[in-house]
């Protein structure tokens, strides 16, 4: 049986119609388990049911009680799905793909599930209609597996060949940029707007405006004038756990930014001193003992023992004196220093912070460029130049009920360090804020991603090489290109379809895609096809409705019936997202009204009212569609789930096999 | 075969959480909290099923730390109140109770959750900005030249803890002592980097509360048999005592030899080497004219003997907790080396005394300056003594907070009723621009504001547990209580003549309305100079910082509970 036997797939839905599918699963313990679109859809819909309540600006929180009894209050789709601890293989694939997507863009798990569900629903509807286009002339019952397999390939073709094109050509005029045109600097208003939209989906109603302002402020304060944004964002992401401090028992409004960094330890020795001070980092015991881990000490006589003990004490005393002579006033240590070191430090007016986590020392190193000091005796005394660094201010700081150490730096190579103090009444809530803010920087990183145009998924490029060159030749005239290209891809796809069951090459190709997705690399290899970095567009479903419009109009002109079908399937599915955004509202804000208004404005080339909608990163949005298409192309290609007793050599649990 | 059990999937309860489930999970908790609230609150006895320690209390800090709740929503509430208490140690019951009331009332409303959250947030902002404004009528600036306001503040903390079992006189006495102890911890010198001293509580069981006292300096417990061993025959030294404080062990063990092994030949006597070093140290101390040695850890008996012969008092096993106060009080730096001790490490004391209290003996360290004191706290039995200790700690924290932010709020329910009156007035005169900003209708705003005010008034009403009538005056918005017939209220003899906080007397023609009933919105007036501070000095004050934070925590937590749409539990 499969690892993690799903005998307890237990998801209690009060009054929701998804119970059916899960109950079925409970009974079905036998592998191999046949899988078709219907079952995948059922699983996806049960996930959709869970996330849609937390989706959009009106979404609610989830209170998660961990097995340890700790609380977590979250609206993060990723946390919600992961906390469900799902057992169904299909559900696990979906959650895994969604999380991979989120680890790149920092957001979009809920949208991922909604879009996935939308596409699956549309596909199901298309197949259930007596649609002979897809079955390639054969009858449906015999060959559904074959149809799905083809669909899987079509999805990939669609993404690389049509979607990228449409986004580059037709959607990009609607994009705005976060850079001010005149000065080529960041527009703080746009950044604020992007963050507002992001936080409206991620944290509670109560505090989103405050947190969004705080994060935008933090971002701007950390930016030095001459440094690239990407580097700063990268440093903030990697060091975020050191750059923030959680404070419990205070309202969120007390959150603030403090300059410098906070070391999450107390002073072991504190000697107040004004002005700039010199500091060193040490990573080993300052005081030496008689023996060490690889040194055995032989005691031969009383006098020897006595003298060696005195020598060691004096050594520490002298070392500390030497540091004082070098005007060192602060020692940062990763290890715990014994009492005697603290004593001599105090005597020489040197402050000590010990037991520092390695990550915090690393951050200090990144900021100052200093390296740690070796305390081998001769080394310090003989060397004239100590690797020290200057600190503007070093003082104890009281955050909540705990004392920490605050370091302020005079200048910095990579970023202007600032620390975020995040307050909240409960631990679970601050955790949520921390993860949301951390992901916000991931989202910003994605926003500033430098873009390589049209880097097509690796192996598919070989197959459709001719299409691609053709496309490049005639980039000027969109319509002509598309129709031309369609003609080509008709032949291509048809031949593809015919040879599918027999050609070993194409099967290999499909398998390759699958494994790549399972390993989660594909998302990382993808590059956004949008020309400019920092492209944004209005939120509130604008991207989805725009893409829907262009896909539909493209589907009408498209001569290849299969691709046209995929276009309209994806196009319609996209509307699932704005539908969920506007579901709770009444009257003039309902989805149909908004959609009609939007389309008519688009057709008449009128300006669309977007001031209320906020802004979203275009690159994240494209990434979302791409990730969903990848996930689907994998899901529909699976027809059996095989349970294995032992853990397979590679890490995948679910193998798609073709028993045709 | 496999010992690794497959993880069970989580149990997911979908929302929106219905009213009944939330109410069920909060109702018991709320009942407990409500009945503890205020000076007339009922006492709770907490014990576990298998016997063990019994806790008698009505304090939030003790109650919330001993609870264990199973319902998710209650867990959330308890966690957030615990965090508040750990920072402020006061107003925990206020926050918990307000949160329960708000949740209860908000769930009854038939308004979109987000509108409720938004409006309640704007109401909270209104309260906070009013409270932090200078012309706020329900706060009083603390004048540190007079002990009166601070005493009132402490007395209201002490009197709201009935489980201490204090009479009015005893409560007054303890309040004075708490203030005295607090003043002792304020250092004499001024300048930057000021650190408050410490008052160390010394609990003594079985004595009357009136035997409690505050003594400057520290009391170190020393059993009778240790006494003769430590103190030289010449007796305790008199004035100008030079003190050495050691943080390392002087036991003479060869410890801290590193991670490697030590090969010791048979001929080597390590004990002897170590003892020699100790004796050299002792000689040095005697040469330096040290009179008193204090050691955090153990002192070798031979060294003790040597020091005793040279009329040096040696006291060991001080413990880590007292190191900091001793160092602060005497100026001594903890010594961590057996050799090369600089002169600057020594501290000084004004005197040493023997002190006996009950069956216990103490050595009393009398400092030259002011910064550390011992608070000898007596009470008749263990449970009430523990409660009294908690009360004193809470009161000390409240005083520290007040020192930082020198304002106090009117207590006795007056702040609550005053705020409620203000909110009612402001929400009745809400501008339409504010409503469009909140994206809600005037009726919705009014409903939420009503719930908010009713919750605040319910808190004020909660102060009365004996069925007495509570009312609000329609001029200043203060809270007035009238004891029911027959109930003897010893806290304020002239009940009904004075408002809850004691700053106002009932004047002729003051219109009142029963608390909880509807009244015409009015703008609550600030007190004129003449009305404030009447002859009586029995005001009831609350800590400003703690109460403001409690208000914010309560509203935030209520919004959080309201915003929950799912509960997922991991049963593993």
From TrEMBL, chain A:
GO BP terms: chaperone-mediated protein complex assembly
GO molecular function: ATP binding
SUPFAM superfamilies reported for this sequence: GroEL equatorial domain-like (SSF48592)
Pfam family for this entry, one: Cpn60_TCP1
UniProt signal peptide: none
PANTHER family: BARDET-BIEDL SYNDROME 10 PROTEIN (PTHR14667)
UniProt protein name: Bardet-Biedl syndrome 10
Organism: Xenopus tropicalis (Western clawed frog)
Gene field: bbs10
TrEMBL record, chain B:
Assembly and interaction partners: Component of a complex composed at least of MKKS, BBS10, BBS12, TCP1, CCT2, CCT3, CCT4, CCT5 and CCT8. Interacts with STUB1. Interacts with BBS2 (via coiled coil domain). Interacts with CCDC28B. Interacts with BBS12. Interacts with SMARCC1, a component of the SWI/SNF complexes; the interaction takes place predominantly in the cytoplasm and may modulate SMARCC1 location. Interacts with DLEC1.
Entry protein name: Molecular chaperone MKKS
Main location: cytoplasm
Cited SUPFAM superfamilies: GroEL apical domain-like (SSF52029), GroEL equatorial domain-like (SSF48592)
Family label: Belongs to the TCP-1 chaperonin family.
Keywords: ATP-binding, Chaperone, Cytoplasm, Cytoskeleton, Nucleotide-binding, Nucleus
GO biological process, one term: protein folding
Pfam families xref list: Cpn60_TCP1 (PF00118)
Compartment(s): Cytoplasm, Cytoskeleton, Microtubule organizing center, Centrosome; Cytoplasm, Cytosol; Nucleus
Gene from which this protein is expressed: mkks
The keyword Transcription belongs to this UniProt entry's keyword annotation: no
Cellular component terms per the entry's GO annotation: centrosome; cytoplasm; cytosol; kinociliary basal body; nucleus
Highest rank taxon of the organism: Eukaryota
Coiled coil: none
GO molecular function: ATP binding; unfolded protein binding
Function field: Probable molecular chaperone that assists the folding of proteins upon ATP hydrolysis. Plays a role in the assembly of BBSome, a complex involved in ciliogenesis regulating transports vesicles to the cilia. May play a role in protein processing in limb, cardiac and reproductive system development. May play a role in cytokinesis.
């Amino acid at each position: 049986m499969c690892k993690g036997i799903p005998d307890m797939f237990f998801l209690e839905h009060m009054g929701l119609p998804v119970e059916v599918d899960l109950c079925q699963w409970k009974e079905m313990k036998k592998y191999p388990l046949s899988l078709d679109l219907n079952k995948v859809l059922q699983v996806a819909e049960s996930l959709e049911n869970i996330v849609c309540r937390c989706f959009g600006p009106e979404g609610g929180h989830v209170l998660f009680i961990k097995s340890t009894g700790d609380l977590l209050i979250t609206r993060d789709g990723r946390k919600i799905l992961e906390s469900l601890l799902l057992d169904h293989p299909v559900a696990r694939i979906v959650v895994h793909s969604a999380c991979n997507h989120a680890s790149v863009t920092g957001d979009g798990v809920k949208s991922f599930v909604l879009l996935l569900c939308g596409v699956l629903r549309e596909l199901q509807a298309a197949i259930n209609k007596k649609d002979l286009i897809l079955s390639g002339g054969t009858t449906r019952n015999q060959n559904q597996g074959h149809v799905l397999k083809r669909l899987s390939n079509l999805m990939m073709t669609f993404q690389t060949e049509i979607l990228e094109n449409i986004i580059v050509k037709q959607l990009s005029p609607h994009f705005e940029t976060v850079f001010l045109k005149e000065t080529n600097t960041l527009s703080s208003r746009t950044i604020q707007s992007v963050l507002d939209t992001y936080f409206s989906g991620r944290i509670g109603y109560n505090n989103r405006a405050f947190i969004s302002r705080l994060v935008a402020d933090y971002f701007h304060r950390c930016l030095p004038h001459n440094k690239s944004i990407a580097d700063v964002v990268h440093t903030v992401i990697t060091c975020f756990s050191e750059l923030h401090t959680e404070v419990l028992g205070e309202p969120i409004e007390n959150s603030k930014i403090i300059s410098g960094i906070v070391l999450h330890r107390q002073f072991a020795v504190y000697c107040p001193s004004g002005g700039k001070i010199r500091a060193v980092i040490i990573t080993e015991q300052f005081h030496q003992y008689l023996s060490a881990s690889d040194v055995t000490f032989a005691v031969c006589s009383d006098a020897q023992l006595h003298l060696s003990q005195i020598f060691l004490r004096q050594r520490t005393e002298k070392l500390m004196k030497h540091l004082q002579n070098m005007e060192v006033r602060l020692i940062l240590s990763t290890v715990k220093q014994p009492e005697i070191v603290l004593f001599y430090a105090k005597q020489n007016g040197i402050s000590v912070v010990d037991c520092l986590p390695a990550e915090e020392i690393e951050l200090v190193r990144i900021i100052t460029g200093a390296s740690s000091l070796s305390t081998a005796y001769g080394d310090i005394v003989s060397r004239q130049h100590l690797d020290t660094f200057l600190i503007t201010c070093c003082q104890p700081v009281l955050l909540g009920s705990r004392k920490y150490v605050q370091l302020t730096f005079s200048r910095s190579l990579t970023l202007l360090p600032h620390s975020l103090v995040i307050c909240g009444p409960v631990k679970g809530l601050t955790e949520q804020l921390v993860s949301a803010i951390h992901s916000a920087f991931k989202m910003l990183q994605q926003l500033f991603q430098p873009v390589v145009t049209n880097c097509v998924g690796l192996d598919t490029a070989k197959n459709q090489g001719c299409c691609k060159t053709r496309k490049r030749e005639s980039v000027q005239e969109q319509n002509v290109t598309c129709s031309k290209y369609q003609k080509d891809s008709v032949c291509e796809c048809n031949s593809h379809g015919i040879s599918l069951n027999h050609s070993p090459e194409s099967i290999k190709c499909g398998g390759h895609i699958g494994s790549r997705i399972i390993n989660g690399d594909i998302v990382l290899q993808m590059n956004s096809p949008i020309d400019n970095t920092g492209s944004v567009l209005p939120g509130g479903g604008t991207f989805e409705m725009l893409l829907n419009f262009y896909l539909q109009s493209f589907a009408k002109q498209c001569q290849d019936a299969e691709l046209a079908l995929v276009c309209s399937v994806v196009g319609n599915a996209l509307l699932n997202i704005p539908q969920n955004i506007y579901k709770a509202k009444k009257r003039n804000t309902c989805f149909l009204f908004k959609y009609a208004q939007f389309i008519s404005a688009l057709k008449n080339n009128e300006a669309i009212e977007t001031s209320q909608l906020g802004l979203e990163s275009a690159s994240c949005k494209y990434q979302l569609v791409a990730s969903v298409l990848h996930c689907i192309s994998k899901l529909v290609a699976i027809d059996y789930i095989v349970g294995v007793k032992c853990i397979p050599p590679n890490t995948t649990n679910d193998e798609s096999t073709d028993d045709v | 075969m496999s010992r690794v059990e497959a993880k069970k999937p989580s149990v997911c309860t979908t929302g929106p959480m219905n009213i009944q489930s939330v109410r069920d999970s909060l109702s018991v908790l709320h009942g407990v909290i409500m009945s503890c609230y205020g000076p007339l609150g009922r006492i709770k006895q907490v014990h576990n099923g298998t016997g063990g320690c019994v806790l008698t209390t009505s304090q939030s800090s003790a109650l919330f730390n001993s609870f264990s709740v199973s319902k998710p929503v209650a867990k959330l509430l308890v966690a957030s109140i615990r965090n508040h208490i750990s920072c402020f140690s006061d107003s925990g019951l206020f926050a918990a109770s307000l949160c329960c009331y708000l949740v209860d009332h908000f769930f009854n409303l038939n308004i979109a959750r987000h509108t409720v959250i938004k409006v309640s947030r704007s109401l909270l902002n209104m309260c906070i900005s009013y409270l932090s404004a200078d012309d706020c009528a329900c706060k009083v600036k603390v004048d540190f030249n007079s002990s009166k306001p601070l005493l009132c503040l402490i007395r209201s903390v002490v009197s709201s803890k009935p489980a201490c079992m204090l009479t009015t006189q005893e409560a007054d006495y303890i309040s004075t002592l708490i203030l005295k102890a607090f003043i002792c911890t304020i250092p004499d010198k001024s300048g930057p980097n000021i650190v408050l001293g410490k008052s160390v509580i010394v609990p003594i069981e079985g004595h009357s509360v009136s035997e409690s006292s505050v003594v400057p300096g520290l009391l170190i417990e020393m059993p009778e048999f240790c006494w003769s061993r430590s103190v030289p025959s010449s007796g305790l030294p008199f004035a100008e005592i030079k003190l050495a404080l050691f943080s390392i062990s002087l036991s003479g063990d060869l410890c801290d030899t590193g991670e490697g092994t030590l090969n010791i030949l048979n001929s080597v006597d390590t004990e002897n080497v170590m003892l020699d070093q100790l004796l050299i140290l002792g000689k040095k101390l005697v040469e330096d004219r040290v009179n008193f040695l204090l050691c955090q850890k153990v002192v070798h008996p031979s060294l003790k003997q040597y020091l005793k012969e040279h009329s040096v008092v040696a006291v060991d096993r001080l413990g880590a907790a007292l190191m900091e106060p001793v160092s602060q009080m005497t100026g001594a730096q903890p010594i961590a080396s057996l050799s090369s001790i600089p002169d600057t490490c020594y501290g000084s004391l004004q005197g040493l005394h023997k002190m006996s209290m009950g069956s216990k003996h103490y050595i009393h360290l009398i400092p030259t300056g002011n910064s550390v004191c011992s608070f000898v706290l007596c009470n008749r039995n263990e449970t009430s003594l523990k409660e009294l200790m908690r009360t004193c700690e809470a009161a000390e924290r409240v005083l520290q907070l007040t020192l930082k932010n020198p304002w106090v709020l009117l207590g006795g329910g007056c702040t609550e009723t005053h705020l409620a009156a203000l909110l009612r007035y402001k929400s009745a005169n809400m501008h339409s621009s504010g409503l469009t900003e909140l994206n809600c209708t005037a009726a919705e705003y009014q409903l939420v504001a009503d719930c908010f005010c009713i919750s605040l008034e319910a808190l004020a009403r909660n102060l009365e547990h004996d069925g007495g009538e509570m009312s609000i005056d329609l001029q200043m918005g203060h809270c007035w209580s009238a004891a029911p017939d027959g109930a003897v209220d010893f806290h304020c003899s002239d009940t009904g003549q004075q408002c809850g906080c004691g700053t106002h007397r009932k004047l002729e023609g003051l219109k009142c309305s029963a608390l909880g009933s509807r009244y015409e919105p009015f703008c609550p007036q600030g007190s004129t100079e003449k009305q404030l501070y009447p002859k009586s000095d029995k005001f009831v004050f609350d800590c400003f910082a703690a109460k403001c934070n409690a208000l914010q925590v309560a509203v935030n937590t209520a919004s959080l509970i309201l915003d929950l749409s799912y509960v997922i539990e991991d049963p593993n």
